[in-house]
Amino acid sequence: MMLLKNDGVLPLTDAPGLSVAVIGEFARPPRFQGAGSSRVSPTRADVPLGELAAALPSATLRFTAGYGTSGDDTAPEPQLADAGRAP
Known about the structure:
Structural class: alpha+beta
Shape: globular
Largest sheet: 2 strands, parallel
Number of helices: 2
Radius of gyration: 15 Å
Order of helices and strands: EHEH
Strand order of the largest sheet: 1-2
Distance between the termini: 16 Å
């Protein structure tokens, strides 16, 4: 997650009409384990998209993968276009 600029927007409060764009494939199944020193066995792994939905039940959440997860850092053009249109 990256915050570019907080211009009085955060913290988010649940309200009808609130629209949140969630961009990134790992917002659905989070990636939390790697190799070497990052190898962990968590007792729980929260799913960011699910946690946002629970915290903001009146909001409209819009999700797009935005990029591929194959490790080559490329995304098909439709995914990139969807990310660019997300509100």
